[in-house]
């Protein structure tokens, strides 16, 4: 059995930790030693690259990144940082760089704003005069920023291969097909009963494609984030008999369970099986139909890790993300979004030991930021979100220097037919609960 680190790391960089592991200079272990290599080694290869999501099946239509010019592949860390700083200085207010909480340290240090996916989309909206928004996150986040930013603003994803394996688990074709099958079970899906409730309201997690958000907008549904999922489900139950929740089964199950929905009334929808694998009677009885999706990063957390943390660190406070499996959320002291985790640690007044069940880049950054606490990741294996990790400083330097040269690389554009209903679904969420202020 591996042991948990006794002290928080002084250096928050996951990249540095991986290099030490690969060099044999660290006793830590990683899920994939390939992570220490440049992401450009994987851009042309179908797949999510090394790391926790590499076992997931990438959809055939997922975007691929073209070859990064050799000057960026061969530049060392110091040169890349100098080039990024110089390009940012030249561009000034014309560009805003956004970095997600899970982004690697070497990129986050250049971000004008660091936050969760929704806070960053809000930050994009709040800079209407910036010509370019460089989004150092994953594809669905850049799409959301494009939805909320001005039409003449370019949202740029530095590496197009930075997708999200969970978002890719619900394709628009599969969701349309599911909707048709549900209509066979429930009858017309837009027909309200005598209590004014329609048979089913679609709810999508922010971690989904713009096409899915558009689908939800067209069918009376709504978007949620991990911080407002309960409010959104309450909104949906005020309008429908049941909810179709996608793509993350765990966020859906954890939230609905906390609201008192029995597990027997939460069937799983497997898009590869007729009626998702349930009977018509089970679907009639359902309150929340859970799409068969998950996050490969958060699925790594286990109850055994929590037991070990409690045994080795009496009094430890265990906080996990609601994308973790239900058993893990149940065994933890608290569960909440990335921003909840950050705020909970920031608010602790006494030195505390925290075992955190979320992505390693955020956990190590928090450990470095709050040295008065002992903060460690529940998973002893260094295994970042491999898709987010595809954004290396080399790509950030490349897109910024392209902008300086008057070119706009890797622009993420959501077409109007999708964007209009997707915005409706996002606006319903905003009306259900106001946005959280940008950090
Ligand atoms: P946030 O919505 O908190 O940014 O989380 C995004 C994510 O990908 C969690 O796995
Ligand atoms: Fe997607 Fe999971 Fe990575 Fe979040 S942590 S971007 S859900 S793969």
From TrEMBL:
Keyword Cell wall biogenesis/degradation: no
Cellular compartment(s): Cytoplasm
GO biological process, one term: 'de novo' NAD+ biosynthetic process from L-aspartate
Taxonomic lineage from the root: Bacteria, Bacillati, Actinomycetota, Actinomycetes, Micrococcales
Cross-referenced Gene3D superfamilies: NadA-like (3.40.50.10800)
Keywords from the named record: 4Fe-4S, Cytoplasm, Iron, Iron-sulfur, Metal-binding, Pyridine nucleotide biosynthesis, Transferase
Primary localization: cytoplasm
Designated name of the protein: Quinolinate synthase
Sequence positions that bind iminosuccinate: 100, 117, 205-207, 226, 321-323, 338
Residues noted as binding [4Fe-4S] cluster in the record, renumbered to the chain: 164, 295, 385
Keyword Chloroplast included in the entry's annotation: no
């Amino acid at each position: 059995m591996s042991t948990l680190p006794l002290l928080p790391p002084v250096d928050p960089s996951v990249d540095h930790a991986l290099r030490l592991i690969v060099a044999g200079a660290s006793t830590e272990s990683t899920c994939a030693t390939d992570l220490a290599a440049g992401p450009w080694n994987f851009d042309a290869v179908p797949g999510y690259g090394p790391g926790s999501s590499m076992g997931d099946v990438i959809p055939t239509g997922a975007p691929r990144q073209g070859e990064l010019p050799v000057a960026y592949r061969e530049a060392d860390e110091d040169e890349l940082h100098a080039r990024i700083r110089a390009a940012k200085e030249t561009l000034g207010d014309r560009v805003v760089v956004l970095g997600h909480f899970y982004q690697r340290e070497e990129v986050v240090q250049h971000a004008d704003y660091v936050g969760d996916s929704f806070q960053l989309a809000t930050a994009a909206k709040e800079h209407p005069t910036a010509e370019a928004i460089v989004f150092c996150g994953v594809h669905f986040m850049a799409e959301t920023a494009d939805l909320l930013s001005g039409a003449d603003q370019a949202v740029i994803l530095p590496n197009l291969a930075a997708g999200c394996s969970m978002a890719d688990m619900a394709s628009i074709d599969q969701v349309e097909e599911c909707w048709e099958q549900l209509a066979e079970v429930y009858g017309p899906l837009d027909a309200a009963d005598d209590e004014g409730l329609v048979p089913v309201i679609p709810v999508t997690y922010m971690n989904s494609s713009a096409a899915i958000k558009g689908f939800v907008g067209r069918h009376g549904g709504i978007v949620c984030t991990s911080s407002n999922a309960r409010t959104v489900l309450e909104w949906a139950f005020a309008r429908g008999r049941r909810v179709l929740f996608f793509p993350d089964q765990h966020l859906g199950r954890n939230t609905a369970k906390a609201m008192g929905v029995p597990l027997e009334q939460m069937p799983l929808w497997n898009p590869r099986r007729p009626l998702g694998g349930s009977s018509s009677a089970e679907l009639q009885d359902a309150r929340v139909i859970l799409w068969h999706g998950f996050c490969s990063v958060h699925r790594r957390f286990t109850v055994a890790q929590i037991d070990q943390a409690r045994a080795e660190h009496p009094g430890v406070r265990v906080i996990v993300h609601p994308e973790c499996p239900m058993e893990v959320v149940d065994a933890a002291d608290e569960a909440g979004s990335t921003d909840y985790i950050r705020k909970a640690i920031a608010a602790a007044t006494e030195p505390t030991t925290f075992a955190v069940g979320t992505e390693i880049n955020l956990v190590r950054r928090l450990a470095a930021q709050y040295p008065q606490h002992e903060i460690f990741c529940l998973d002893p294996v260094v295994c970042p979100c491999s898709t987010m990790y595809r954004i290396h400083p080399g790509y950030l330097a490349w897109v910024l220097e392209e902008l300086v040269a008057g070119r706009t690389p890797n622009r993420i554009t959501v077409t109007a037919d999708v964007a209009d209903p997707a915005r409706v679904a996002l606006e319903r969420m905003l009306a259900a609960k106001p946005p959280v202020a940008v950090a």
